[in-house]
Amino acid sequence: MPEKFSKNAARNIYYGGSLFFILLFLALTYQTTQALPQRDHRDQLTEAVARGKEIWEENNCIGCHTLMGEGAYFAPELANVFDRRGGEQAFTAFLKAWMAAQPLDVPGRRKMPQFNLSEQQVEDLAEFLKWTSKIDDNNWPPNIEG
Amino acid sequence: MKYQSQAVAKPYFVFALILFAGQILFGLILGLQYVIGDFLFPEIPFNVARMVHTNLLIVWLLFGFMGATYFLVPEECETELHSPKLALILFWVFASAGVLTILGYLMVPYATLAEITGNKFFPTMGREFLEQPTLTKVGIVIVCLGFLYNVGMTLLKGRKTVINVVLMTGLVGLAVMFLFSFYNPSNLALDKYFWWWVVHLWVEGVWELIMGSILAFVLIRVTGVDREVIEKWLYVIIGMALITGIIGTGHHYYWIGPEPYWHWLGGVFSALEPLPFFAMTIFAFNMVNRRRRVHPNKAATLWAMGTAVMAFLGAGVWGFLHTLAPVNYYTHGSQITAAHGHMAFYGAYAMIVLTIISYAMPILGGRTEGNSNRSQVVEMWGFWLMTVAMVFITLFLTGAGILQVWLQRLPEAAGALPFMVTQEKIAVFYWLREGAGVVFLVGLICYFVSFFVKGPQAQSA
């Protein structure tokens, strides 16, 4: 590195640059939190959706599945499972049947554990997945298969 | 070792390596479950094994960072550690909390663990990488506070160098950002937005400060190059890391709710994220070329240079490959992500901890010039086997990812294969990955064996 670029200059870039971008990031965060209510349709976030999220978390579903592309890559994407498996008409019924049938008896196939959820819990989970599917996520994933 | 209190680093390093071995074993289980879906089911379901794999990774790296800190801060400050006793107490607190948490994952269903640790009163569990029970999270905060107090007091009474000040900044940042793991709103979009404040701002932010300062410390010691030169580089590297990495968080905000302007903002800044890693590679090679002495611990020098190269490839190149929104639209959450994650974590963070261990452990054992040549040869076998295996793991996962995108994501709805069908089609890559994983394990065994190879200590050339 040229000698005229001093350690002091390097230090000033580090402190000045970091501070500037921290402040910019905070400003963008403020802007994003202001814009999110229109995009995450939080007005429809019911008690059931909130309970569903807790069930999602307390059974570590993210340990196999992805949700909006984040999580583990062992099992299908679930942010759009509501649309893939029946939508408004049939999704809740599908989820009940699916959860009751686990683990599927196919040797060598990846297994989903039996979580022994109550009927109410599966309904809450379905509400959570339904609400999630409606977050404006810039049209991700590219197709229904996730 | 120059200061008695540096000795507290040793248990941290030893325990870190034990957890590392556990991480690799669970990695092999996971790899096998990818192709033999019911392997160990229902005893160890995939989600449990995965949680153990990733949580062990985080915890062994934290132990490694703490050990590195206890080793280098007294030397940099030119004073004994404020309280070696506190360091040892915190070691046992952290180690037992860690072991109990892992046992909890393995022995009871996750929902039961959530119930008996009172998750419903203060829910923080069940989010990727932050699966620890709330009690464990509180424990981590207490350990961090004690650790920062101890290191901070040492720093206050001693010499303040760029290295130890940058390290301290990184460690404080690590603790502060972890507090966001306690924020878990019912609104998933908000939850995810701030979840990244822990995950991204750790690995693409403050951890880079820790990594940079450890690397600078080792390079000063093994090359004898003037401190002024190395410190200037350190500022440049961490400056670039934060300038690109902070707004670079935006590449995680493409598809989880925030507005589309993040697409180009995240894209531009994360496209620049390879720069600090590239600078680090030039830095490491430059310093080794300019060295004023050939340090007898050749293994440590190899690790230091390897860290710079592999961090650039894994975090820099593989990150860049799918960081732009139009590409990421197809690759997000695919095996491409897994490929990048594996090489980036190994190259940047596993290797920097192995670098400092390679440098420090012989000294902690009384061999100030490094282990015997025979021991170093075995250690370098470990280096090459693990590193090459990781290159292949990354390549195979990348192959799997490209095919996955091709079959499942690119076609219009009618022609796209479902997830599980795609997984069967790409199974051959998972088999190859598992094979590379076995080679990695062989490398790890070599590495462990090197600790027990005796012989006279290395001599300066």
UniProtKB/TrEMBL annotation, chain A:
Species annotation: Hahella chejuensis (strain KCTC 2396)
PANTHER family: CYTOCHROME C-553-LIKE
Molecular-function GO term, any one: metal ion binding
This protein's UniProt keywords: Electron transport, Heme, Iron, Membrane, Metal-binding, Transmembrane, Transmembrane helix, Transport
Residue stretches spanning the membrane: 12-30
Domain of life of the source: Bacteria
UniProt keyword Cell membrane present: no
Domain named Cytochrome c: residues: 47-133
Signal peptide interval: none
Name under which the protein is recorded: Cytochrome c, mono-and diheme variants
UniProtKB/TrEMBL annotation, chain B:
Top-level enzyme category: oxidoreductase
One GO BP: electron transport coupled proton transport
GO MF term list: cytochrome-c oxidase activity; heme binding; metal ion binding; nitric oxide reductase activity
Membrane topology: Multi-pass membrane protein
Known EC number: 1.7.2.5
Alphabetical list of InterPro entries matching this protein: Cyt_c_oxase-like_su1_dom, Cyt_c_oxase-like_su1_sf, Cyt_C_Oxase_1, Cyt_c_Oxase_su1_BS
Pfam families: COX1
GO cellular component terms listed in the entry, alphabetical order: plasma membrane
Pathway: Nitrogen metabolism; nitrate reduction (denitrification); dinitrogen from nitrate: step 3/4
Keywords associated with the record: Cell membrane, Electron transport, Heme, Iron, Membrane, Metal-binding, Oxidoreductase, Respiratory chain, Transmembrane, Transmembrane helix, Transport
Subcellular compartments: Cell membrane
UniProt domain Cytochrome oxidase subunit I profile: residue ranges: 1-461
Entry keyword Ligase: no
Reaction(s) the record says it catalyses: nitrous oxide + 2 Fe(III)-[cytochrome c] + H2O = 2 nitric oxide + 2 Fe(II)-[cytochrome c] + 2 H(+)
Subunit structure: Heterodimer of cytochromes b (large subunit) and c (small subunit).
Family stated for the protein in its record: Belongs to the heme-copper respiratory oxidase family.
Role played: Component of the anaerobic respiratory chain that transforms nitrate to dinitrogen (denitrification). NorB is the catalytic subunit of the enzyme complex. Shows proton pump activity across the membrane in denitrifying bacterial cells. The mononitrogen reduction is probably coupled to electron transport phosphorylation.
Protein name stated in the entry: Nitric oxide reductase subunit B
Organism (species): Hahella chejuensis (strain KCTC 2396)
Gene field: norB
